[in-house]
Amino acid sequence: MELRHLRCLVAIVDSGGFTDAAIDLGISQAAVSRTIASLEDSLGVRLLHRTSRSVVPTTAGVQVLARARKVLAEADNLIREATTGHTRLRIGHAWSAMGRHTAEYQRRWAARHPGIELHLVRTNSATGGLAEGLCDLAVVRTAFDDARFAGAVVGQERRYCAMAADDPWATRRAIPLSDVRTRTLLLDRRTGTTTADLWPPDARPVVEYTQDIDDWLTEIATGRSVGITPESTANQYRRDGIVFRRLRDAAPVDVHLVWRRHDPHPATHAAVALLTDLYRQRR
Question: Strands 55-57, 137-140: parallel, antiparallel or unpaired by DSSP?
Answer without folding.
Answer: unpaired
